[in-house]
TrEMBL record:
InterPro entries: DNA/RNA_pol_sf, Rev_trsase/Diguanyl_cyclase, SulA_CellDiv_inhibitor, UmuC. This is Protein ImuB. It comes from Promicromonospora thailandica. Poorly processive, error-prone DNA polymerase involved in untargeted mutagenesis. Copies undamaged DNA at stalled replication forks, which arise in vivo from mismatched or misaligned primer ends. These misaligned primers can be extended by PolIV. Exhibits no 3'-5' exonuclease (proofreading) activity. May be involved in translesional synthesis, in conjunction with the beta clamp from PolIII. The keyword Iron-sulfur does not apply.
Amino acid sequence: MRAAASGGTTRTACLWVPDWPVVAALVVAGLGPETPAAVTGGPGGRIVAVSAPARSAGVRRGMRRREAQARCPDLQLWAADDARDAREFEPVAVAAEAVVPGLEIARPGLLLLPSDGAARYHGSEHELARELTEQVAVRTGHECQVGVADGFLAAVLAARDDAVVPPGASAGYLAPRPAAVLVHARPADRALTELVDLWRRLGIRTLADLAALPDAAVAARFGDLGVWAQRLARGQDVRPPARRRLVEDLAVTEELDPPAHRVDVATFAARRLAERLHEDLARHGLACGRLRITARAVDPVTGEARTLERLWRTDDTLGGLSAARITDRVRWQLEGWLTESSLGRGEAPAPIAGLTLSAEEVAPAGALQPRLWGPGAGEDLRARRAVERVQALLGGDSVLTVRLQGGRDPRDRVQLVPYGEQVPPERAPDRPWPGALPPPAPSVVLPEPVPAHVLDAAGRPVVVDVRLAVSGPPARVVVPDGVAGADGGTGLDAAVVDWAGPWPVAERWWTARSRRRVFLQATVEQPGGPVGLTLGLLLSASGGAWVLEAVYD
Protein backbone atom coordinates (compact mmCIF):
# COMPACT_ATOMS: atom_id res chain seq x y z
CA MET A 1 0.00 0.00 0.00
CA ARG A 2 2.86 2.33 0.63
CA ALA A 3 4.57 1.96 -2.69
CA ALA A 4 5.32 5.36 -4.08
CA ALA A 5 2.98 6.78 -6.65
CA SER A 6 2.93 9.95 -8.66
CA GLY A 7 2.30 13.03 -6.58
CA GLY A 8 3.18 11.24 -3.36
CA THR A 9 -0.09 9.23 -3.31
CA THR A 10 -0.91 5.52 -3.42
CA ARG A 11 -3.83 3.43 -4.58
CA THR A 12 -5.63 2.46 -1.41
CA ALA A 13 -8.66 0.30 -0.86
CA CYS A 14 -10.78 1.19 2.15
CA LEU A 15 -13.27 -1.25 3.70
CA TRP A 16 -15.90 0.42 5.87
CA VAL A 17 -18.63 -1.16 8.00
CA PRO A 18 -21.26 1.55 8.59
CA ASP A 19 -22.25 2.30 12.21
CA TRP A 20 -19.69 -0.17 13.52
CA PRO A 21 -19.97 0.69 17.28
CA VAL A 22 -23.69 -0.15 17.09
CA VAL A 23 -23.07 -3.29 15.02
CA ALA A 24 -20.50 -4.54 17.57
CA ALA A 25 -22.88 -3.84 20.48
CA LEU A 26 -25.70 -5.72 18.74
CA VAL A 27 -23.41 -8.74 18.12
CA VAL A 28 -22.42 -8.89 21.79
CA ALA A 29 -26.07 -8.55 22.88
CA GLY A 30 -27.18 -11.25 20.45
CA LEU A 31 -29.62 -8.95 18.67
CA GLY A 32 -30.23 -8.63 14.96
CA PRO A 33 -29.61 -5.64 12.67
CA GLU A 34 -33.36 -4.90 12.60
CA THR A 35 -33.16 -3.69 16.23
CA PRO A 36 -33.22 0.11 16.68
CA ALA A 37 -30.05 0.81 18.63
CA ALA A 38 -27.54 3.54 19.45
CA VAL A 39 -24.27 4.02 21.30
CA THR A 40 -23.69 6.90 23.70
CA GLY A 41 -20.44 8.52 24.75
CA GLY A 42 -18.51 11.74 25.18
CA PRO A 43 -19.57 14.77 27.23
CA GLY A 44 -23.17 14.56 28.39
CA GLY A 45 -23.62 10.99 27.14
CA ARG A 46 -24.85 12.07 23.72
CA ILE A 47 -25.54 9.69 20.84
CA VAL A 48 -22.34 8.90 18.88
CA ALA A 49 -23.53 6.06 16.61
CA VAL A 50 -26.98 5.05 15.34
CA SER A 51 -28.32 1.96 13.57
CA ALA A 52 -30.33 2.26 10.37
CA PRO A 53 -33.71 1.37 12.02
CA ALA A 54 -33.13 4.00 14.72
CA ARG A 55 -32.12 6.55 12.10
CA SER A 56 -35.37 5.95 10.21
CA ALA A 57 -37.22 6.69 13.47
CA GLY A 58 -35.55 10.11 13.69
CA VAL A 59 -32.60 9.39 16.00
CA ARG A 60 -29.47 11.31 15.04
CA ARG A 61 -25.89 11.57 16.22
CA GLY A 62 -25.36 14.33 18.79
CA MET A 63 -28.82 13.93 20.35
CA ARG A 64 -29.29 13.59 24.08
CA ARG A 65 -30.47 10.23 25.38
CA ARG A 66 -33.83 11.55 26.50
CA GLU A 67 -34.63 13.10 23.12
CA ALA A 68 -33.53 9.95 21.27
CA GLN A 69 -35.73 7.74 23.46
CA ALA A 70 -38.67 10.10 22.98
CA ARG A 71 -38.39 9.70 19.21
CA CYS A 72 -37.86 5.94 19.39
CA PRO A 73 -39.27 4.34 22.59
CA ASP A 74 -37.89 0.88 21.63
CA LEU A 75 -34.35 2.23 21.26
CA GLN A 76 -31.61 0.00 22.72
CA LEU A 77 -28.74 2.00 24.22
CA TRP A 78 -25.17 0.98 25.05
CA ALA A 79 -22.18 2.96 26.29
CA ALA A 80 -19.21 3.38 23.94
CA ASP A 81 -16.58 0.67 24.42
CA ASP A 82 -13.38 0.79 22.34
CA ALA A 83 -12.30 -2.67 23.47
CA ARG A 84 -15.62 -4.19 22.41
CA ASP A 85 -15.41 -2.49 19.00
CA ALA A 86 -11.87 -3.75 18.36
CA ARG A 87 -12.57 -7.27 19.63
CA GLU A 88 -15.67 -7.81 17.50
CA PHE A 89 -13.98 -6.30 14.44
CA GLU A 90 -11.34 -9.02 14.33
CA PRO A 91 -13.49 -11.48 12.30
CA VAL A 92 -14.02 -8.75 9.69
CA ALA A 93 -10.27 -8.22 9.45
CA VAL A 94 -9.73 -11.99 9.10
CA ALA A 95 -12.30 -12.15 6.30
CA ALA A 96 -10.71 -9.24 4.43
CA GLU A 97 -7.26 -10.75 4.88
CA ALA A 98 -8.43 -13.85 3.04
CA VAL A 99 -8.66 -11.61 -0.04
CA VAL A 100 -5.79 -9.16 0.50
CA PRO A 101 -2.94 -9.98 2.89
CA GLY A 102 -1.16 -7.24 4.80
CA LEU A 103 -4.08 -5.00 5.73
CA GLU A 104 -3.97 -2.32 8.41
CA ILE A 105 -6.67 -1.21 10.84
CA ALA A 106 -7.21 2.53 10.83
CA ARG A 107 -9.83 2.13 13.57
CA PRO A 108 -12.45 -0.51 14.38
CA GLY A 109 -14.89 -0.42 11.49
CA LEU A 110 -12.36 0.87 8.94
CA LEU A 111 -9.66 -1.13 7.15
CA LEU A 112 -7.04 0.03 4.66
CA LEU A 113 -5.67 -2.43 2.14
CA PRO A 114 -3.15 -2.36 -0.73
CA SER A 115 -5.10 -2.37 -3.99
CA ASP A 116 -2.54 -2.47 -6.81
CA GLY A 117 -1.48 -6.13 -6.73
CA ALA A 118 -4.85 -7.41 -5.51
CA ALA A 119 -6.70 -5.52 -8.28
CA ARG A 120 -4.46 -7.07 -10.94
CA TYR A 121 -5.06 -10.53 -9.45
CA HIS A 122 -8.86 -10.14 -9.37
CA GLY A 123 -9.03 -8.41 -12.74
CA SER A 124 -9.94 -4.86 -11.70
CA GLU A 125 -10.48 -2.65 -8.68
CA HIS A 126 -14.25 -3.08 -9.05
CA GLU A 127 -13.83 -6.88 -8.85
CA LEU A 128 -11.58 -6.47 -5.80
CA ALA A 129 -14.28 -4.41 -4.08
CA ARG A 130 -16.94 -7.00 -4.93
CA GLU A 131 -14.79 -9.86 -3.60
CA LEU A 132 -14.12 -8.05 -0.33
CA THR A 133 -17.78 -7.30 0.33
CA GLU A 134 -18.76 -10.89 -0.49
CA GLN A 135 -16.11 -12.43 1.78
CA VAL A 136 -17.06 -10.22 4.71
CA ALA A 137 -20.77 -10.97 4.22
CA VAL A 138 -20.22 -14.75 3.94
CA ARG A 139 -17.75 -15.10 6.81
CA THR A 140 -19.23 -12.60 9.30
CA GLY A 141 -22.74 -11.72 8.15
CA HIS A 142 -21.89 -7.99 8.20
CA GLU A 143 -22.56 -5.66 5.30
CA CYS A 144 -19.64 -3.44 4.29
CA GLN A 145 -18.74 -0.93 1.62
CA VAL A 146 -15.43 -0.70 -0.25
CA GLY A 147 -13.90 2.29 -1.98
CA VAL A 148 -10.65 2.66 -3.93
CA ALA A 149 -8.83 5.94 -4.54
CA ASP A 150 -5.49 7.76 -4.35
CA GLY A 151 -4.73 8.81 -0.79
CA PHE A 152 -6.28 8.20 2.61
CA LEU A 153 -9.18 10.67 2.73
CA ALA A 154 -10.29 10.00 -0.83
CA ALA A 155 -10.35 6.25 -0.11
CA VAL A 156 -12.40 6.76 3.07
CA LEU A 157 -14.97 8.93 1.28
CA ALA A 158 -15.03 6.55 -1.68
CA ALA A 159 -15.91 3.72 0.73
CA ARG A 160 -18.78 5.79 2.10
CA ASP A 161 -19.96 6.29 -1.50
CA ASP A 162 -19.20 2.63 -2.38
CA ALA A 163 -17.24 3.93 -5.36
CA VAL A 164 -13.93 3.48 -7.21
CA VAL A 165 -12.18 6.76 -8.04
CA PRO A 166 -10.00 6.51 -11.19
CA PRO A 167 -6.22 6.97 -10.74
CA GLY A 168 -5.23 10.63 -10.67
CA ALA A 169 -8.81 11.84 -10.14
CA SER A 170 -8.83 11.99 -6.33
CA ALA A 171 -8.06 15.73 -6.14
CA GLY A 172 -11.05 16.52 -8.36
CA TYR A 173 -13.20 14.03 -6.44
CA LEU A 174 -12.40 15.80 -3.16
CA ALA A 175 -12.42 19.44 -4.36
CA PRO A 176 -16.18 20.25 -4.26
CA ARG A 177 -16.81 18.51 -0.94
CA PRO A 178 -17.32 20.58 2.21
CA ALA A 179 -14.35 20.84 4.56
CA ALA A 180 -16.48 19.18 7.23
CA VAL A 181 -15.88 15.76 5.59
CA LEU A 182 -12.40 15.82 7.14
CA VAL A 183 -13.97 14.56 10.35
CA HIS A 184 -14.48 11.17 8.65
CA ALA A 185 -10.70 10.75 8.68
CA ARG A 186 -10.60 11.28 12.45
CA PRO A 187 -14.01 11.01 14.14
CA ALA A 188 -14.61 12.39 17.64
CA ASP A 189 -11.58 14.70 17.35
CA ARG A 190 -12.77 17.88 19.03
CA ALA A 191 -9.78 19.91 17.85
CA LEU A 192 -10.46 19.00 14.22
CA THR A 193 -14.16 19.82 14.57
CA GLU A 194 -13.32 23.25 16.01
CA LEU A 195 -10.79 23.88 13.24
CA VAL A 196 -13.34 23.02 10.54
CA ASP A 197 -15.83 25.39 12.19
CA LEU A 198 -13.20 28.13 12.23
CA TRP A 199 -12.52 27.60 8.52
CA ARG A 200 -16.25 27.88 7.80
CA ARG A 201 -16.36 31.28 9.52
CA LEU A 202 -13.26 32.37 7.60
CA GLY A 203 -14.87 31.45 4.29
CA ILE A 204 -12.88 28.22 3.73
CA ARG A 205 -15.88 26.05 3.01
CA THR A 206 -14.68 23.35 0.60
CA LEU A 207 -11.64 21.11 0.36
CA ALA A 208 -10.67 23.02 -2.78
CA ASP A 209 -10.52 26.24 -0.74
CA LEU A 210 -8.29 24.55 1.83
CA ALA A 211 -6.03 22.93 -0.81
CA ALA A 212 -5.49 26.32 -2.50
CA LEU A 213 -4.09 28.02 0.61
CA PRO A 214 -0.30 28.63 0.72
CA ASP A 215 1.51 25.86 2.58
CA ALA A 216 3.52 28.26 4.75
CA ALA A 217 0.42 30.21 5.79
CA VAL A 218 -1.43 27.04 6.79
CA ALA A 219 1.53 25.81 8.85
CA ALA A 220 1.99 29.17 10.58
CA ARG A 221 -1.68 29.83 11.34
CA PHE A 222 -3.18 26.38 11.90
CA GLY A 223 -0.19 24.27 12.97
CA ASP A 224 0.36 20.56 12.46
CA LEU A 225 -3.35 19.76 12.36
CA GLY A 226 -3.88 22.26 9.54
CA VAL A 227 -0.95 20.83 7.54
CA TRP A 228 -2.33 17.31 8.00
CA ALA A 229 -5.80 18.40 6.85
CA GLN A 230 -4.44 20.26 3.81
CA ARG A 231 -2.50 17.17 2.66
CA LEU A 232 -5.70 15.14 2.86
CA ALA A 233 -7.67 17.85 1.02
CA ARG A 234 -5.18 17.62 -1.86
CA GLY A 235 -5.69 13.87 -2.14
CA GLN A 236 -2.26 13.06 -0.75
CA ASP A 237 -1.24 10.52 1.86
CA VAL A 238 -0.85 11.69 5.43
CA ARG A 239 2.77 10.63 5.60
CA PRO A 240 5.68 11.14 3.17
CA PRO A 241 6.14 8.23 0.71
CA ALA A 242 9.83 7.81 1.64
CA ARG A 243 10.28 5.20 4.34
CA ARG A 244 13.06 3.82 6.49
CA ARG A 245 13.40 0.09 6.84
CA LEU A 246 12.58 -1.54 10.16
CA VAL A 247 15.65 -2.01 12.31
CA GLU A 248 16.07 -4.74 14.92
CA ASP A 249 16.20 -2.29 17.83
CA LEU A 250 12.61 -1.21 17.10
CA ALA A 251 11.08 -4.65 17.57
CA VAL A 252 10.60 -5.93 21.13
CA THR A 253 9.71 -9.52 22.07
CA GLU A 254 8.73 -11.35 25.24
CA GLU A 255 7.99 -15.02 25.87
CA LEU A 256 5.06 -15.87 28.16
CA ASP A 257 5.75 -18.89 30.36
CA PRO A 258 3.25 -20.33 31.07
CA PRO A 259 1.21 -19.21 28.05
CA ALA A 260 -1.52 -16.67 28.81
CA HIS A 261 -5.11 -17.85 28.54
CA ARG A 262 -6.61 -14.58 29.80
CA VAL A 263 -6.53 -11.09 28.32
CA ASP A 264 -5.43 -9.41 31.56
CA VAL A 265 -2.39 -11.69 31.92
CA ALA A 266 -1.29 -11.11 28.31
CA THR A 267 -1.94 -7.36 28.64
CA PHE A 268 0.38 -7.21 31.67
CA ALA A 269 3.22 -8.49 29.48
CA ALA A 270 2.12 -6.20 26.64
CA ARG A 271 2.41 -3.17 28.92
CA ARG A 272 6.08 -3.92 29.58
CA LEU A 273 6.70 -4.38 25.87
CA ALA A 274 4.92 -1.11 25.07
CA GLU A 275 7.10 0.80 27.54
CA ARG A 276 10.26 -0.73 26.06
CA LEU A 277 9.21 0.08 22.49
CA HIS A 278 8.27 3.64 23.45
CA GLU A 279 11.64 4.13 25.16
CA ASP A 280 13.45 2.82 22.07
CA LEU A 281 11.57 5.21 19.79
CA ALA A 282 12.23 8.16 22.10
CA ARG A 283 15.91 7.28 22.46
CA HIS A 284 16.36 7.21 18.68
CA GLY A 285 14.25 10.37 18.18
CA LEU A 286 11.81 8.46 15.96
CA ALA A 287 8.09 8.14 15.43
CA CYS A 288 6.31 5.24 13.76
CA GLY A 289 3.45 5.23 11.30
CA ARG A 290 2.35 1.65 12.01
CA LEU A 291 2.43 -0.77 14.90
CA ARG A 292 2.68 -4.48 14.05
CA ILE A 293 1.39 -6.82 16.77
CA THR A 294 2.54 -10.43 16.46
CA ALA A 295 1.53 -13.23 18.82
CA ARG A 296 2.59 -16.87 18.95
CA ALA A 297 -0.41 -18.98 19.91
CA VAL A 298 -0.13 -22.62 21.01
CA ASP A 299 -2.95 -25.07 20.34
CA PRO A 300 -3.96 -26.48 23.78
CA VAL A 301 -4.64 -29.96 22.31
CA THR A 302 -1.97 -30.59 19.68
CA GLY A 303 0.68 -28.18 20.97
CA GLU A 304 1.05 -26.81 17.45
CA ALA A 305 2.14 -23.16 17.30
CA ARG A 306 0.66 -20.63 14.90
CA THR A 307 1.37 -16.98 14.31
CA LEU A 308 -1.28 -14.28 14.72
CA GLU A 309 -0.45 -10.89 13.28
CA ARG A 310 -2.19 -7.57 12.86
CA LEU A 311 -1.08 -4.13 11.68
CA TRP A 312 -2.50 -0.94 13.25
CA ARG A 313 -2.19 2.59 11.85
CA THR A 314 -0.83 4.89 14.54
CA ASP A 315 -0.13 8.31 12.99
CA ASP A 316 -1.36 11.28 15.04
CA THR A 317 -0.52 14.90 14.37
CA LEU A 318 -1.52 15.99 17.85
CA GLY A 319 0.96 13.96 19.86
CA GLY A 320 3.24 10.94 19.76
CA LEU A 321 2.24 7.32 20.32
CA SER A 322 2.63 6.99 24.10
CA ALA A 323 3.23 3.71 25.92
CA ALA A 324 -0.35 3.81 27.21
CA ARG A 325 -1.76 4.15 23.69
CA ILE A 326 0.41 1.28 22.44
CA THR A 327 -0.89 -0.83 25.33
CA ASP A 328 -4.50 0.01 24.45
CA ARG A 329 -4.08 -1.19 20.88
CA VAL A 330 -2.39 -4.41 21.99
CA ARG A 331 -5.10 -5.05 24.60
CA TRP A 332 -7.85 -4.57 22.02
CA GLN A 333 -6.12 -6.97 19.64
CA LEU A 334 -5.54 -9.57 22.38
CA GLU A 335 -9.22 -9.46 23.23
CA GLY A 336 -9.93 -10.19 19.58
CA TRP A 337 -7.61 -13.20 19.66
CA LEU A 338 -8.44 -14.59 23.12
CA THR A 339 -12.22 -14.17 23.10
CA GLU A 340 -14.20 -17.11 21.77
CA SER A 341 -17.01 -14.90 20.42
CA SER A 342 -14.54 -13.15 18.11
CA LEU A 343 -13.46 -16.39 16.44
CA GLY A 344 -16.93 -17.02 15.03
CA ARG A 345 -16.29 -20.76 14.34
CA GLY A 346 -16.88 -22.34 17.77
CA GLU A 347 -13.13 -22.72 18.30
CA ALA A 348 -11.51 -22.41 21.70
CA PRO A 349 -9.02 -19.54 21.82
CA ALA A 350 -5.38 -20.63 21.79
CA PRO A 351 -3.22 -19.31 24.66
CA ILE A 352 -0.56 -16.74 23.81
CA ALA A 353 3.00 -17.99 24.32
CA GLY A 354 4.90 -15.01 22.89
CA LEU A 355 4.37 -11.38 21.93
CA THR A 356 6.28 -9.11 19.56
CA LEU A 357 5.67 -5.40 18.96
CA SER A 358 7.31 -3.81 15.92
CA ALA A 359 7.46 -0.13 14.97
CA GLU A 360 7.12 0.15 11.21
CA GLU A 361 7.49 3.03 8.80
CA VAL A 362 9.74 4.81 11.26
CA ALA A 363 11.01 8.31 10.51
CA PRO A 364 12.59 11.15 12.48
CA ALA A 365 9.93 12.43 14.86
CA GLY A 366 10.40 15.97 13.59
CA ALA A 367 9.45 14.85 10.07
CA LEU A 368 6.05 13.67 11.27
CA GLN A 369 5.38 16.16 14.04
CA PRO A 370 7.25 19.45 13.60
CA ARG A 371 8.09 21.04 16.94
CA LEU A 372 9.95 24.03 18.26
CA TRP A 373 12.85 21.84 19.41
CA GLY A 374 13.74 18.87 17.24
CA PRO A 375 13.74 15.71 19.38
CA GLY A 376 15.71 13.77 16.79
CA ALA A 377 18.84 15.83 17.48
CA GLY A 378 18.43 15.86 21.28
CA GLU A 379 17.53 19.54 21.63
CA ASP A 380 14.50 18.61 23.73
CA LEU A 381 16.62 17.02 26.42
CA ARG A 382 19.25 19.78 26.40
CA ALA A 383 16.62 22.50 26.60
CA ARG A 384 14.88 20.76 29.48
CA ARG A 385 18.14 20.41 31.37
CA ALA A 386 18.95 24.09 30.81
CA VAL A 387 15.56 25.16 32.14
CA GLU A 388 15.91 22.92 35.19
CA ARG A 389 19.38 24.38 35.83
CA VAL A 390 18.02 27.94 35.76
CA GLN A 391 15.19 26.89 38.03
CA ALA A 392 17.64 25.39 40.51
CA LEU A 393 19.65 28.62 40.58
CA LEU A 394 16.74 31.09 40.82
CA GLY A 395 14.06 29.09 42.61
CA GLY A 396 11.10 26.96 41.58
CA ASP A 397 8.75 29.91 40.97
CA SER A 398 11.25 31.80 38.81
CA VAL A 399 10.67 29.76 35.64
CA LEU A 400 7.05 29.72 34.48
CA THR A 401 5.27 27.98 31.66
CA VAL A 402 2.02 28.96 29.98
CA ARG A 403 -1.06 26.76 30.14
CA LEU A 404 -4.53 27.25 28.72
CA GLN A 405 -7.40 27.49 31.19
CA GLY A 406 -11.03 28.56 31.14
CA GLY A 407 -12.02 32.20 30.73
CA ARG A 408 -13.81 34.73 28.58
CA ASP A 409 -11.06 37.04 27.36
CA PRO A 410 -7.54 36.12 26.14
CA ARG A 411 -5.84 37.32 29.33
CA ASP A 412 -8.08 35.23 31.59
CA ARG A 413 -7.39 32.10 29.57
CA VAL A 414 -3.64 32.20 30.25
CA GLN A 415 -2.32 30.55 33.42
CA LEU A 416 1.34 30.81 34.42
CA VAL A 417 2.55 27.83 36.43
CA PRO A 418 6.02 26.89 37.73
CA TYR A 419 7.89 24.73 35.23
CA GLY A 420 7.52 21.02 35.90
CA GLU A 421 4.73 21.34 38.48
CA GLN A 422 1.29 19.83 38.07
CA VAL A 423 -0.85 22.74 39.23
CA PRO A 424 -4.61 22.36 38.76
CA PRO A 425 -6.13 25.06 36.53
CA GLU A 426 -7.83 27.93 38.31
CA ARG A 427 -10.73 27.69 35.86
CA ALA A 428 -11.64 24.46 34.08
CA PRO A 429 -11.03 24.84 30.31
CA ASP A 430 -13.64 22.22 29.33
CA ARG A 431 -16.62 24.04 30.83
CA PRO A 432 -18.84 26.39 28.84
CA TRP A 433 -17.91 30.08 29.10
CA PRO A 434 -20.86 32.15 27.82
CA GLY A 435 -19.71 35.42 26.34
CA ALA A 436 -16.19 34.11 25.67
CA LEU A 437 -14.20 35.65 22.83
CA PRO A 438 -14.77 33.51 19.71
CA PRO A 439 -11.78 32.12 17.81
CA PRO A 440 -9.40 32.89 16.26
CA ALA A 441 -7.50 34.15 19.27
CA PRO A 442 -5.50 37.41 19.09
CA SER A 443 -1.85 37.04 18.17
CA VAL A 444 -0.64 39.55 20.82
CA VAL A 445 -2.22 40.00 24.26
CA LEU A 446 -0.92 43.12 26.00
CA PRO A 447 0.51 42.48 29.49
CA GLU A 448 -1.97 45.03 30.84
CA PRO A 449 -4.83 46.80 29.02
CA VAL A 450 -3.82 50.30 27.89
CA PRO A 451 -6.13 53.35 27.78
CA ALA A 452 -7.63 54.10 24.38
CA HIS A 453 -10.17 56.43 22.78
CA VAL A 454 -12.80 55.18 20.35
CA LEU A 455 -14.19 58.11 18.35
CA ASP A 456 -17.00 58.51 15.84
CA ALA A 457 -16.80 60.44 12.55
CA ALA A 458 -17.38 63.77 14.37
CA GLY A 459 -14.55 63.10 16.83
CA ARG A 460 -16.91 62.40 19.75
CA PRO A 461 -16.27 59.44 22.10
CA VAL A 462 -18.28 56.35 21.23
CA VAL A 463 -20.56 55.43 24.12
CA VAL A 464 -22.39 52.13 24.64
CA ASP A 465 -25.67 52.42 26.55
CA VAL A 466 -27.40 49.82 28.70
CA ARG A 467 -29.22 48.44 25.65
CA LEU A 468 -25.87 47.92 23.88
CA ALA A 469 -26.59 50.64 21.35
CA VAL A 470 -23.56 52.67 20.26
CA SER A 471 -23.78 56.44 20.09
CA GLY A 472 -22.19 56.38 16.67
CA PRO A 473 -20.22 54.04 14.39
CA PRO A 474 -16.52 53.89 15.43
CA ALA A 475 -14.37 55.91 13.00
CA ARG A 476 -10.99 56.20 14.77
CA VAL A 477 -9.07 54.47 17.51
CA VAL A 478 -6.49 56.54 19.42
CA VAL A 479 -3.93 55.30 21.94
CA PRO A 480 -2.26 58.37 23.50
CA ASP A 481 1.43 59.06 22.90
CA GLY A 482 3.71 57.74 25.61
CA VAL A 483 1.47 54.71 26.18
CA ALA A 484 2.56 51.32 24.82
CA GLY A 485 0.20 50.64 21.96
CA ALA A 486 -0.49 47.86 19.51
CA ASP A 487 3.13 47.59 18.41
CA GLY A 488 4.56 48.05 21.91
CA GLY A 489 5.72 51.52 20.90
CA THR A 490 4.42 55.04 21.30
CA GLY A 491 0.68 54.99 20.80
CA LEU A 492 -1.69 54.66 17.90
CA ASP A 493 -4.00 56.87 15.81
CA ALA A 494 -5.73 55.01 12.98
CA ALA A 495 -8.96 55.05 10.99
CA VAL A 496 -11.43 52.22 11.50
CA VAL A 497 -11.98 50.10 8.38
CA ASP A 498 -14.53 47.71 9.87
CA TRP A 499 -15.86 46.75 13.29
CA ALA A 500 -17.99 44.15 15.10
CA GLY A 501 -19.87 44.21 18.40
CA PRO A 502 -20.32 45.32 21.01
CA TRP A 503 -21.16 42.30 23.17
CA PRO A 504 -21.50 42.38 26.96
CA VAL A 505 -19.75 40.25 29.57
CA ALA A 506 -20.99 40.40 33.17
CA GLU A 507 -18.94 38.31 35.58
CA ARG A 508 -19.93 37.57 39.17
CA TRP A 509 -22.79 40.04 38.92
CA TRP A 510 -24.25 38.67 42.15
CA THR A 511 -21.21 39.70 44.25
CA ALA A 512 -19.57 42.95 45.28
CA ARG A 513 -16.61 42.01 43.04
CA SER A 514 -18.74 42.00 39.89
CA ARG A 515 -17.12 43.09 36.62
CA ARG A 516 -19.17 44.38 33.69
CA ARG A 517 -17.57 45.06 30.32
CA VAL A 518 -18.43 45.35 26.67
CA PHE A 519 -16.07 44.15 23.94
CA LEU A 520 -15.55 45.59 20.49
CA GLN A 521 -13.47 44.27 17.60
CA ALA A 522 -12.14 46.80 15.11
CA THR A 523 -10.02 46.62 11.98
CA VAL A 524 -7.91 49.74 11.51
CA GLU A 525 -5.43 50.97 8.92
CA GLN A 526 -1.90 49.90 9.75
CA PRO A 527 -0.04 53.06 10.92
CA GLY A 528 2.93 53.80 8.68
CA GLY A 529 2.31 50.71 6.58
CA PRO A 530 1.44 50.22 2.91
CA VAL A 531 -2.00 51.25 1.71
CA GLY A 532 -4.54 48.52 2.37
CA LEU A 533 -2.61 46.90 5.22
CA THR A 534 -4.84 46.57 8.29
CA LEU A 535 -4.53 45.68 11.95
CA GLY A 536 -7.15 43.98 14.15
CA LEU A 537 -7.81 45.32 17.65
CA LEU A 538 -9.74 43.96 20.61
CA LEU A 539 -11.12 46.79 22.75
CA SER A 540 -13.23 46.76 25.90
CA ALA A 541 -15.12 49.39 27.83
CA SER A 542 -16.06 49.52 31.49
CA GLY A 543 -17.64 52.55 33.17
CA GLY A 544 -17.46 54.46 29.89
CA ALA A 545 -13.64 54.16 29.53
CA TRP A 546 -12.13 52.23 26.62
CA VAL A 547 -8.96 50.14 26.82
CA LEU A 548 -6.97 48.18 24.24
CA GLU A 549 -6.82 44.50 25.25
CA ALA A 550 -5.16 42.63 22.36
CA VAL A 551 -4.08 42.76 18.73
CA TYR A 552 -4.80 40.44 15.77
CA ASP A 553 -2.20 39.94 13.05
